[in-house]
C-alpha cells in the first residue's frame, strides 16, 4: 500500500475528486492548508492577464503573513497561499495511474500547481471492524 499526498490549487479540487472517483478511489481526506513554495507566496505575477489588478487584495487570495514575520518585524512579510491537501491510500499497482491523473488534472504550467508525495504504508486498521491492511482501506 502507498499513501499519496497531493497539494493542489483550491479551484482544482472538484476536478481532482472526479478524476480519483473515475479511477475507483473515491475515499480520501481533504484539508485546507496554507503554504508557500519557491515563489515564497508571490503569485500575482503568475496570474492571467484578465484578472483585475486588485486580485491579490480581494477575498480570492487572502495571503497570510507569518507570525514570525509579524513578531520580528521583517522588512518583507512572508505570504502563505491557501491550498488543498489531499491524502489517499491505494494499492501499489494503482500509484502510477493515480499520479498520472493527478498531474493531468492539476498541471496549469504556472507556479503553484502543487506537489505529489508517495509514501509507503506499513499497516492500516479499520477501527469499526478490525479489518487490516487492504481490506481496511477499500
Summarize the structure in words:
The chain has 138 residues and is an alpha+beta fold. It has one domain: 2-Layer Sandwich (Alpha-Beta Plaits), CATH 3.30.70.120. Helix content is 22%, strand content 25%. It contains 4 helices and 5 strands, in the order E-H-E-E-H-E-H-E-H. Strands 1, 2, 3, 4 and 5 form a 5-stranded antiparallel β-sheet that branches. The longest helix has 12 residues. The radius of gyration is 18 Å and the shape is globular. It starts with a strand and ends with a helix. About 9% of the residues have low confidence.
Approximately what portion of the residues adopt beta-strand conformation?
Answer: 15-25%
Secondary structure class reads: alpha+beta
C-alpha geometry: globular
Order of secondary-structure elements: EHEEHEHEH
In CATH's first tier, which class applies? Alpha Beta
Radius of gyration: 18 Å
Give the tags:
single chain, 138 residues, alpha+beta, Alpha-Beta Plaits, 5-stranded antiparallel sheet, 4 helices, 22% helix
Question: What is the topology?
Answer:
Layout: E1 2-8, H1 13-22, E2 29-35, E3 64-65, H2 67-71, E4 79-90, H3 95-106, E5 115-120, H4 134-137
Antiparallel strand pairs: 1-4, 1-5, 2-4, 3-4
Helix pairs in contact: 1-3
Amino acid at each position: 500500500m502507498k499513501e499519496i499526498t497531493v497539494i493542489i490549487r483550491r479551484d482544482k479540487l472538484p476536478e481532482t475528486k472526479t478524476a480519483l472517483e473515475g479511477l475507483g478511489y473515491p475515499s480520501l481526506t481533504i484539508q485546507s492548508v496554507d503554504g508557500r513554495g519557491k515563489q515564497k507566496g508571490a503569485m500575482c505575477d503568475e496570474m492571467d492577464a484578465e484578472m483585475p489588478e486588485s486580485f491579490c487584495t480581494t477575498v480570492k487570495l487572502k495571503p497570510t503573513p507569518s507570525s514570525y514575520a509579524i513578531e520580528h518585524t521583517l522588512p518583507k512579510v512572508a505570504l502563505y497561499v491557501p491550498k488543498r491537501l489531499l491524502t489517499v491510500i491505494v494499492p501499489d499497482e494503482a500509484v502510477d495511474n493515480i499520479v498520472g491523473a493527478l498531474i493531468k488534472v492539476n498541471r496549469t504550467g504556472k507556479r503553484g500547481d502543487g506537489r505529489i508525495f508517495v509514501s509507503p504504508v506499513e499497516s492500516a486498521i479499520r477501527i469499526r471492524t478490525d479489518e487490516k491492511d487492504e481490506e481496511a482501506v477499500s
